[in-house]
């Protein structure tokens, strides 16, 4: 029940295309869902996050879509650029209790120039 | 900017050695975490701490211990390093509420030979 399942494992997108990464969770107590971006040799960096009281959050070219009933959320990268090539992790946490973050297994995105 | 600093970028240790990984954060965060990152497995939680001298086991605590004597510092200890502990180790910190996301250090690439 603590798992967060992420797909796909890897993704290749043409420059200007839309990159879509999906995550699913089981524990309905999760109420905070961040996405992290990690470049080679660096630690993950917080990219965007959403709470389940909204169905969508947009920051620039990055959008999280959230489907509470399906227990799924996804990251959309519009107008993907070569600089977006990185590994992306979804995560989930509970804002009551011990606040630890459960991470997905990651998606390696490559955007072709 | 939040800064989470890990004491070493790269470490090479021998099997059986006691290994200390140090992490310091400068944002007065209550929570601190140690994760291990392996290809295809994502980030797995080893231990976390929500207060000085307080700690809780994560998903893979075996072979590890932690110490938090001061709020800003969280140490991961490998009691007797083994080759299967060769990995990237990531430290993170967050506010107590768990709603703001975790901030990561740059990682320590540990090789046990």
Structure write-up:
The complex is a heterodimer of chains A (113) and B (113). Chain A has 113 residues and is mainly beta. Chain A contains no helices and eleven strands. In chain A, a hairpin with a 2-residue loop joins strand 6 and strand 7. Chain B has strands spanning 4-6, 10-13, 19-25, 31-38, 42-51, 54-57, 64-70, 73-78, 87-94, 103-104, 108-112. Chain B is globular and about 40 Å long. Chain B contains no helices and eleven strands. In chain B, a hairpin with a 3-residue loop joins strand 4 (31-38) and strand 5 (42-51). In chain B, the strands form two sheets. In chain B, strands 2, 4, 5, 6, 9, 10 and 11 form a seven-stranded mixed beta sheet that branches. A four-stranded antiparallel beta sheet of chain B has the order 1-3-8-7, with no helix packed on it. Classes of the chains: A mainly beta (113), B mainly beta (113). The interface between A and B is medium-sized, with 27 and 29 residues.
């Amino acid at each position: 029940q603590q798992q967060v399942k992420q797909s796909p494992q890897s993704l290749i997108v043409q420059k200007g295309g839309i990159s879509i990464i999906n995550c699913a969770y089981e524990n309905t107590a999760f109420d905070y869902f961040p996405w992290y971006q990690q470049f080679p040799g660096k630690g993950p960096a917080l990219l965007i996050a959403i709470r389940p009281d909204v169905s969508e959050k947009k920051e620039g070219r990055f959008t999280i879509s959230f489907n509470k009933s399906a227990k799924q959320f996804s990251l959309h990268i519009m107008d993907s650029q070569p600089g977006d090539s990185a590994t992306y992790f979804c995560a989930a946490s509970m804002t009551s209790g011990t606040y630890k973050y459960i991470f997905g297994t990651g998606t390696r995105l490559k955007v072709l120039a | 900017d939040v800064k989470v600093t890990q004491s070493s970028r790269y470490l090479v240790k021998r099997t059986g050695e006691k290994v200390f990984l140090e992490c310091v954060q400068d944002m007065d965060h209550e929570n601190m975490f140690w994760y291990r990152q392996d290809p295809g497995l994502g980030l797995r939680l080893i231990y976390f701490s929500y207060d000085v001298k307080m700690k809780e086991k994560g998903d893979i605590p075996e072979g590890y211990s932690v110490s938090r004597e001061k709020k800003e510092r969280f140490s991961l200890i490998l009691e007797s390093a083994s080759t299967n502990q060769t990995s990237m180790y990531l430290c993170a910190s967050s506010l107590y509420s768990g709603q703001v996301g975790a901030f990561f250090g740059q990682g320590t690439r540990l090789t046990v030979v």
